[in-house]
Design a protein that fits this description.
The complex is a heterodimer of chains A (305) and B (264). With 305 residues, chain A is an alpha/beta fold. Chain A has 11 helices and 10 strands. Chain A has a single domain, classed as Dihydropteroate synthase-like (TIM Barrel), CATH 3.20.20. The longest helix of chain A has 19 residues. The two termini of chain A are 20 Å apart. With 264 residues, chain B is α/β, with parallel strands linked by helices. Chain B has one domain: Dihydropteroate synthase-like (TIM Barrel), CATH 3.20.20.20. In chain B, helix 1 crosses helix 2, helix 3 packs parallel to helix 4 and helix 6 runs parallel beside helix 7. Classes of the chains: A alpha/beta (305), B alpha/beta (264). At the A-B interface, helix 6 of A face loops of B.
Chain lengths: 305, 264
Amino acid sequence: MERLIEKWQDRISEVVIGAKKPIKIGGETGIYFIDGEDKCPNPMKVAMEVWDTEPESWPDALKSNFGKALKDPGEWAKLCVEKFSADLICLRLASVHPDLKNASAEDAGKALEKVLKAVSAPLVVIGCSSPEKDNEVMAHCANVAKGENCLFGIATQANYKTLTAACLSSGHSIISEAPIDINIAKQLNILICDMQFPADKIVIHHATGSLGYGLEYTYSIMERTRLAGLSGDKMLSMPMINFIGQESWRTKEAKTGTKDAGVLWEIATAAAYLNSGADILVMNHPKAVEEIKKTIKQLMGYICS
Amino acid sequence: MFIIGERINGMFKDVAKAIKDKDESVIQELAEKQTACGANSLDVNVGPASSNPKEAMEWLVKTIGKVTDISLTIDTTKQDVMEAGLGLCKSKPIINSVNANEEKMKNLFSLAKKYNASIIGLTMDKAGIPKDSEGRLELAIKLVASCMEHGMDTSELYIDAVILPVNVAQPHAKEVLKTIRDAKVLADPAPKTVLGLSNVSQSAPAGHKSLINRTFLAMAISSGLDAAILDVTDKELMDSLITAELLMEKQLYCDSYLDAYRKK
C-alpha cells in the first residue's frame, strides 16, 4: 500500500544558541516522530536548571542530587554538564525577586559570569518573574553576556520591549511567552519583530497553567503552533521551549507523593511535550534528564532509521 | 488566495504610452509595486491599440524580467502573441485565457502542456456567456474534460466564471458565486477558480468601484474562490481580502493579522 506522507509548505526556523559550543534547535520539516515525514535535522535538547541562589523551595528529593553545589551556581552548572550530561544550562536569576533576596542586577550579573566561566555549554537565562525587577536585571545581564549568544527570557505581551531591546543590542535570542493562547503567541512575535528583532532568534514558550489541568491544553496549543508554522505562518514557525522541572515540581503529588513521584512527573510531562513539538526541555532532576535523553535517542533513532 | 496583479495592461493609458515609447521604467515600476503589494503573478496584456502586439508582448515580458522573476499571466486572445510571451517567461506562467470553443481548447491546452503553464478557462463559448450557473458549469465541464485529454493535472486549470458589470448584468453575480462553489466537484483534484474582479464594477461611478470590487471579492472568497486578477495596489481591497480569508480560517487570528499577512 502506498504510504501517504504529508508535504509541508514551510519549515521551522533554526535557532543557534551559545558561542563556545553552539547548538542548533528547530529546523523541523514536518511533525516529529512520524516516520518519513520529518528529516529531524536537530535532535531536541535538554537544559538543566541552575539558580543563582540556593533554592529553598525545592523538596529534598530534588536538592539531594546536587549537594553543596547548590550554593555556587558555577559548581552547580559544572555538575549538570559534566556529571548529568545537560546540553544547556538554564540559569534562573531567582535571587533578585523583591520577595526573596531582592539582590541587585550587579549580583545577578556576577552569578551569570560565574556560570559562563564554569561551563562552555550554551545558556538560557531567565529572570524572577517580577516584571519591573526583571527589566532592570535582564538589561544588565544581557550586556554582561554580550557575544555569548544566550537565550534570554521571558518576554510577554505586557512586558517585551526592554528585553527585546537588550537582546537586540547584545546579540542574544529571546523567549516569547503566551498564556496558553496561540493568537497572543502570534501577536507577541509580530510585536517583537516590529522592533527589528530577527524572527530566527525567537523561541516560543506556551506557559502551562499547572500540570494535570494544563498539560493537555498546552499540548494541543503547541501542536497547533507547529502545524501553523509548517503551513507557512512565519510568525509561528519558531522552535519551542518548555520548563518541565518548574511545572512538575510545583504539583502537590511531586512534593508530597512517593520518593520518585516528581521524577515520574518530569519524565511523563517531557515525553508528552516532545511529541507536541518541544525543542528544548528545561528539567530539574538528573534521573529524569537521563531517562528523557534515552527517550529522545530512541525516538530519533526510529525516525532516522 | 493566489493574487494576480491586473495593472500591466495596455487598456491603461500609462501602459499604452509606455509600450509605444518603449519606456521600461513605467512598466518596471508597476511590476515592482504590485509585487511589493502582495501579487503572486502579474497579468501582462498589450491592450487593443498595439500596432504590433507580438513585438509589444515580447518587450513587456523582457522588460519585467529584468527586475523580477515573478510568475507572469500572459493575457491575450492571439495564439502567436501568447506563444511569444510564454517562451520568454522566467517562472511557471499562466495562460489567460482559453474558452470552451473546441479549436481554442485544442490549441491552448497544447500550449499549456508545452510550456508547463497553468491555464485560465473562461466559461464562455461562441454563443457567449451563459446567463446562469448551470450553463457556466456545462462549459466548465468541457474545459475540465479537455484539460484531462491533454494529460494535464486538473488543479492546473483555473475556471473563470466570467463576472459581468453589475450595472448592466446584475443577475449574473449570484450565478457566478454558485459556479465558484460547484466547480470544485467537477474533478479530482478539483480545478481552481479565478475571477477577473474589476469587471464587476466596470462603468460604475469612480467612487463606488473599489467598494463594489471588495464586497464582491469577500463574497467570492466565502464561496471558495482560489485566485483573482485584481488591483493589488488598492489597500482597502487587499484589507478586505485578508479579512475575508481570516474569517474563512485561512490564517490564524492575531490582533495584527493585516500586518502578519503582508509579512508572509
